[in-house]
Each structure stands twice: as structure tokens, then as C-alpha cells.
Amino acid sequence: MSAKSFFKSTAFKCIIVLLSIVLLCSVFLTICNALFYVSDEERLDRALAELYDGESVSTELAPGADALGDGEEVGRAVVLTARIVTSDNHAGDWLVQAQGLDGYNGGTVTCWVVIETQENAVSGVGAVSISSNEGQSYIGRITQEFLNGFSENFNGEPYPDGMVSSGASYSSTAIRNAVNGALEYVKTSIGEAEEAQNE
């Protein structure tokens, strides 16, 4: 087959059509990525607006949080980031993003958890918000009432295995693990800061 006849053939036309489709799809995906990209800062702002009901708050990295890198495993959770919240009504809160393990089919649920502190000790769980999940088909069955239960049932101890949401027990287990991991991380961080001060 000569070059001239190849360029006139159906095979060449198919190749050109496929390359055109690939090029157009690439351009379209690039535009969509630019339009719908959400930065880490914007995700944090959205979480703060939800957790603090639109109240004006500011945050800074918690002591030692810059060393978290890809996360630190704490119990059955991975702590991804930790911040200290500053506002008129919530000075001293810790805002921890933790990924709870042991969800459905080995999946995870990532949550923002507000840990309240007073006099260098954990005093409660302020609020819990689901940030994302991996493979949790029943995550929509997690109710706000279940999430509010962390604040209402805080007694200073880790939340027990029995604290699960009906209809989404695996997902709620992962959420509970995220909250317990956040609590343990904050308790440990406060303890380490006190030890460093006393040295």
C-alpha cells in the first residue's frame, strides 16, 4: 500500500477521528478540572462554616501538626491535619481532620472533628462533620443526630464499640474511629506540650 492510498483509506480516517476525540476530551477535562477544583484552603473554609455555623473563626496549625505529612496513625484512625481555632466563643478548640478505618469493605470515612479544651485538657467534642469517604455505600444513612451524639455523650473516655448508627454500622464505626483518633491525638499533643514546658 502506497502512502497516498493509506492517507485516503478508511483506517487513516478512523485514526484521525480517534485522535480528534482524544484531543477534545483532554481539553474538556482540563477545563472541567480548572472550573471545579477545590483547594485545601477552600475545603477548610467550608468545614469551618459548617462546624461553626457561619461564625467568623480563624485557625493556625497546631503544635507538631506540620510533622503529620501523609498522616499519623492513632488507634484505628489516621490523623491528617490538626489546627487550633481562634474566635470569641471558641478559643482553644482543636480542629482535627481524621480518617476513620474499618468502614464497609475496608473503606474509610474522613471527618473534621472539633475537640474542645479547657485548662490544657480535653473537655468535650464540639462537632463532627463528614468530609469524604471511600467505598461507603450507606454513608447517606448517617444522620445528624448520630453525629451530634459525640458531643452529647462525651464522658472523657473513647467512644465504645456499641456506638453505631442503625442501617450504616460499618460507616458509623469508621466515623467513631475517626473521632476516637482525633481525641487521642489531641490528648497526646497536649500532654507532650506540658512535658516540654516543665523541662
Amount of helix: 40-55%
- Give the terminus-to-terminus CA distance: 85 Å
Radius of gyration: 24 Å
Strand element count: 6
User: Strand content of the residues, in percent?
Assistant: 15-25%
Classify the secondary structure makeup into a structural class: alpha+beta
Average of pLDDT: 87
Helices, strands, pairings?
Layout: H1 3-8, H2 10-36, H3 40-51, E1 58-61, E2 72-74, E3 77-86, E4 94-100, E5 108-118, E6 121-134, H4 144-152, H5 169-198
Antiparallel strand pairs: 1-3, 2-3, 3-4, 4-5, 5-6
Task: Give a written overview of the molecule.
The chain is α+β, with helices and mostly antiparallel strands. About 40% of the residues lie in helices and about 25% in strands. The protein has 5 helices and 6 strands, in the order αααββββββαα. It has helices at about 5-10, 10-35, 40-50, 145-150, 170-199; strands at about 60, 70-75, 75-85, 95-100, 110-120, 120-135. Strands 1, 2, 3, 4, 5 and 6 form a 6-stranded antiparallel beta sheet that branches. A hairpin with a 2-residue loop joins strand 2 (about 70-75) and strand 3. The chain is elongated and about 85 Å long. The model has no long low-confidence stretch (mean pLDDT about 85).
